[in-house]
Amino acid sequence: MAGIEGKVVVITGASSGIGAATARHLAQRGACVVLAARRPDRLAALCGQIVAQGGKACYRVTDVTRRADLAQLVGLAIEQYGKLDVLISNAGIAPISLLDELRVDDWDNMIDVNVKGVLHGIAAALPIFRRQGFGHFVHTLSTAGLRIVPTMAVYAGSKNAVRAISEGLRQEAGDKLLVTTISPGYVDTELPSSMSDPAAREKGLATMKQMAIPAESIAEAIAFAIAQPDNVDVGEIVIRPTAQA
Ligand code: NDP
User: The Ketoreductase domain covers which part of the protein (predicted)?
Assistant: First the structure.
């Protein structure tokens, strides 16, 4: 089905930043959006705004590190709207630091959220997409995976793991399923709040202030991929500030 009107779109990481902007944008264009993240107050507020503006939205508090949460989330989409067209696995964290600092808990968390969170989404949605005979996975990666710099090793590794998983998924998907990866550069969001290393957070905030582009730019790029006809797979999108090296 080409276009966005009437599509049922589940979005993880919808409580702020890119996920929230994407939810607003898609709902304005007639999609039914199912919002997911851990903060219930944020989800309730965004859902209320979308519905007040005439859009269709619901939400479920979801921790993507828990496989059962993803199963319940896609279940909510089916229960509310009768189908699932798109799963946007966008939830992510970036507690970056130099490897020498041995912030091993941060490494674990990045793998759990950024990699396993996406796998849990695939496990939940793939059987539904197969049954329906259509479906679209959208995975948020990062330009950090394209140009790897100090402090970003594990974060970039997590995003590149998802890059490989996404390509494998595309290879196995056949002609009925679509797989899109989007790699943003610096985007003005709350991501630095997930940076536990003060030096990395300060640097991240300064770079964001200097050059970050708005989350709406990423939302529009995601919408472009979702709006294509069923036989047009927008595989990879890279979108970054012009000032970014
Ligand atoms: P935000 O911090 O604004 O958004 C991150 C989202 O992920 C929040 O909604 C957060 O919600 C959610 N989240 C974090 N952990 C979990 C979890 N365990 N379960 C469910 N949801 C979770 O940052 P962005 O919007 O920037 O990040 C969105 C994606 O974009 C991420 O994958 C990030 O890596 C990627 N990205 C961002 C860039 C940037 O410059 N901003 C650049 C490149 C990629 P809550 O805390 O309520 O759970």
Answer: 7-190
Q: Is the CB of 181 under 6 A from ligand 1?
A: no
Domain residue ranges in the chain: 8-239
Cα–Cα dist 84/106, whole Å: 33
Helix (H/G/I), strand (E/B), else coil: 140: strand
The model carries a pTM of 0.98
> 80-90 as b/e, with b when 16 or more CB fall inside 10 Å?
ebeebbbbbbb
Q: Are 177 and 129 in contact (CB under 8 A)?
A: yes
Distance 234 CA to ligand 1 centre (A): 22
Count Cβ neighbours within 10 Å for each residue of 183-212 and write b for 16 or more, e otherwise: bbbbbbbebbebbbbeebbeebeebbeebb
Q: What is the DSSP letter of 152?
A: -
Give the pair of three-digit tokens for residue 115.
């990699």
- The alpha-helical segments, DSSP class H, found in the chain are 17-28, 40-52, 67-81, 104-110, 117-132, 153-173, 198-211, 215-226
* Segment-wise mean pLDDT, segments of 10 residues, the chain, 245 residues: 95 98 98 98 98 98 98 98 98 97 97 98 98 98 96 97 98 94 97 90 90 97 97 97 94
Please give the pLDDT value at position 2.
85
The residues with which 238 forms a beta bridge, in sequence order, are 183
CATH class of the structural domain 8-239:
alpha beta
Q: Is the minimum distance from the CB of 142 to ligand 1 under 6 angstroms?
A: yes
| CA–CA gap between residue 7 and residue 27 (Å, rounded) | 10
Residue type, 106: D
The alpha carbon of 140 and the centre of ligand 1 are apart by a number of angstroms equal to 9
